[in-house]
Structure formats: C-alpha cells, structure tokens
Specification:
Chain lengths: 212, 212
C-alpha cells in the first residue's frame, strides 16, 4: 500500500490549493447562477419602429392667421418717368420687404395629440425583479434619409430641408403594483428657413436608452 | 472540505461576484423610428398698392424753323408767304420727339414679389388690368390717356400676362421680384395735369400668384 505523502507546491500547502480551487469553482458556479436571474430581471424596452407621422404644419403656426396665401401691401411708389418711358427707380427692395411671418419654427410631440402614435418608447420591468425605482437616461439624434444629422429632407428635393431639434422630452410613469412601466415622448422643433417645397419631409429619430 | 467551509466559500464567492455582476447592468439599447412631417403650400405676395408716374421733364424746347419771306401789300391786307409754318412742315425737336407715335411703352421695375412653399417650388404669376382710361378734366373740356398691353416680367424675362417663377422658400431675402410693363397712349392728352379716373383713383391692374 503506497504511503500517502503531502507535497507542497512552491511552498503552498496542497490543502490550501484545494480550498483555492474550491473557491474559484464556487465563484464561477455562483456567477453562472446569478447571471440568469439578473437577465430575467432586465427591462423590456420597446422603441416605436413604425412611422410616426406628425400632424401637418398649419399656417397660423407662423402667421397671424390661418391663410396659406398672404398678400402684403408695400405702400406707394412714385417713380420719375422720362418721355421715352424709362424708369430708373425700383419699387421694392428685398431688404425692405415686410417680414409677414411671426415665426419660422413649429413643434410637435411624439404623442397622439400631435402625431399618429401614442408614444416613442416604452419601458417595462417586473417589480419583484427590480424592486427599486429604475434609473435610466435618454439621448435622441435625428438624421435625414441621406444620413445628414439634424434635418429632415423633402421627399423629392434634397435641397429643401427642415432643421430639426429635440427641444424637450417627457416620461410618463404608468407603473402599477406589479410592474414598472414608463412611456417616453420627445418634442421636436422644425425650422422651415431652408424649406423650398410643400409636402412631406422624412428622416429618422434614433433613441438611445441607458439603464442601470 | 467540510460543509462549513463549503458554505463559507459560497457566501464569499457570492459577495465577491455579485457586485461585479451588478455593474454589468449599466446597458444601452437603441431604436430607430421613421418620422415624417408635412408642410402646407404657402404663398406670400408683396405688391405696390399705388403707383404715380411722374413725367418730370417739362417740354419747353424752342425750335428755330429758319427764315421766310412774306409779300406785303400797301393796302394793309394780310401778308402772303409759302414759308409760313404749318403742322406738316414743323421741324422735329432734337431732345424729344413723338414723331407721330403717341404711344410710350414703359416698364415699372420691382413692384411685386413672391415667396413661399409649393409642391414643385414655383408659382404662376399673372396680371389683369381695369380702369385703363385716365382723364384730365379742365376748364375747356377733358383729355385722356389710355393704357394697354399689360405684361409682367421678372429677372429680365417677359413672357406676357403670366409667367412661372421660383418661390425660393419663405425667407424674404430669397423672394422673387417682378415688374409691370404697359403702354400709354398720349394721342388724346392735349393738356398738362393729373390724369385719373372719375372717382379720383388711377388706372388699376391686379397681380395674382398661385402655387403650382
């Protein structure tokens, strides 16, 4: 019968080595078992993937009335005329034209009071898996169909575009006893200074939600 | 390894592993949403509401019609000469001469401007006239000036009573300017003064602009 010999490896007792390996194995097993539990507790986040069509701009959002056609009297003009019909003076000068509009911007929320969709994103999580109030942050980015950031372009003329800025956001807490439930909205401001055409302007809003 | 040590390792492993697992929960997720907004057709027409053409150069030219000889009788009857002035032999004036043509064509520059949004970015501009006969009433009767051949022009181009021009968006600095052209017939204008309509107004034309 062989004699049992305790051998030290680099001065480390075999007994301690056994405990070290045990600790590693248990830690790995613990990690493996804990991770699925955490995965189960991850929130369910849904972004609106189908088209959000905002309600069309109305003339009274930039003018004092809701007429699409505005006429502006620029006063009188008394040019001197020579006997051969020549008139040197000019009636209107671009820089002196009346402004007419009150604003070049209008805004819309991504909610069904101002678009065809009720929300932009939704966050859901079971309370028994995440008892404390969830914490998360949001960023929004907009680009047109050519990838130019901060604008939407006309469907048939890329030289006609709207500058778009996210000027506000809102989170609705609709949680109940069992679930954390939040709905998210963004408010977009459209600047029509560079628009040349009426009709549809399209692009994409990228929403990034970071949660803890 | 005793059960006590095993449990101790398990607890220690859980304690050490759990915080690292939790920190991995700071996660981001993103979603793209197509968005669309519609702009209405908008057109803004600027116009001069009153034009007073002022022929400021007085026609006070004196013309030397040369020398002549008259046969004079001693009985006091009228002198006779073939050199007397008649409407058919008056010399032309050097500085101004209608030369039998009593019409003066004139172009009044920059008396209307348009801007706005249209499906193809353009507008159709047209002109119609009314009250084209102006009268000067004086103690010996009345004289008239008749206006006709109204056309519009823009950017050096005249196409008739209507034309298509670019709207260039809503910013006034990009507005498209245009002028009005017409002909004045002074054949029946035998007196100096203001030529107006009976109600005191002048001739009238109407500029119309429609998005296309």
């Amino acid at each position: 019968m062989p004699e049992r010999i305790n051998t030290n490896i680099q001065g480390f007792p075999l007994k301690n080595l056994w405990m070290f390996f045990s600790f590693i194995c248990i830690s790995v097993v613990t990690f493996i078992f804990l991770e699925p539990l955490d995965a189960v507790g991850a929130p369910e986040i849904t972004f609106r993937t189908n088209l959000i069509r905002f309600y069309a701009m109305e003339p009274d959002e930039i003018f004092s009335n809701n007429n699409e056609a505005q006429s502006v009297s620029e006063g009188s003009f008394e040019p001197e005329v020579s006997w051969n019909g020549d008139i040197v003076d000019e009636g209107l000068v671009i820089g002196d034209l009346q402004t007419v509009y009150n604003s070049l911007t209008f805004s819309r929320w991504t909610k069904n009071t101002e678009s065809n969709r009720p929300w932009l994103w939704r966050y859901r999580q079971k309370k028994n898996e995440h008892p404390s109030q969830p914490s998360f942050s949001l960023t929004y980015a907009i680009e047109d169909d050519s990838g130019v950031s901060g604008r939407l372009t006309h469907a048939s003329d890329s030289a006609s575009w709207l500058e778009v800025t996210v000027i506000d956001q809102e989170i609705l807490d609709n949680s109940n006893n069992n679930r954390w439930r939040f709905f998210g909205y963004a408010r977009l401001e459209f600047d029509i200074s560079n628009a040349r055409r009426s009709g549809d302007y399209t692009g994409t809003i990228l929403t990034t939600l970071t949660y803890l | 390894m005793t059960l006590k040590k095993l449990l101790g390792s398990l607890v220690l492993g859980a304690i050490l592993v759990s915080p690292f697992g939790k920190t991995l929960h700071a996660a981001s997720t993103s979603g793209n949403t197509r968005i669309k907004v519609t702009l209405p057709q908008i057109i803004i027409l600027h116009y001069i509401s009153e034009i007073s053409l002022d022929f400021t150069t007085d026609l006070t030219t004196s013309i030397d019609e040369g020398s002549g000889s008259w046969t004079t009788a001693w009985d006091g009857t009228n002198a006779v000469s073939t050199d007397e002035l008649a409407t058919g032999n008056l010399n032309a004036r050097q500085t101004f001469e209608l030369e039998g043509n009593t019409s003066i064509s004139t172009s009044v520059p920059n008396v209307w401007a348009v801007r706005g949004l249209a499906q193809n970015g353009e507008a159709a501009v047209s002109i119609t006239e009314s009250n084209t006969t102006l009268t000067h009433t004086h103690t010996n009767g009345s004289d008239t000036i008749t206006l006709s051949d109204f056309t519009i022009s823009s950017d050096g181009e005249t196409t008739g009573t209507s034309m298509e021009v670019a709207l260039n968006g809503i910013a006034r600095t990009n507005a498209t300017l245009g002028g009005v052209n017409f002909t004045m017939d002074l054949g029946d204008a035998d007196s100096a003064g203001d030529y107006k309509n009976a109600d005191g107004s002048g001739f009238e034309y109407t500029i119309s602009a429609v998005t296309i």
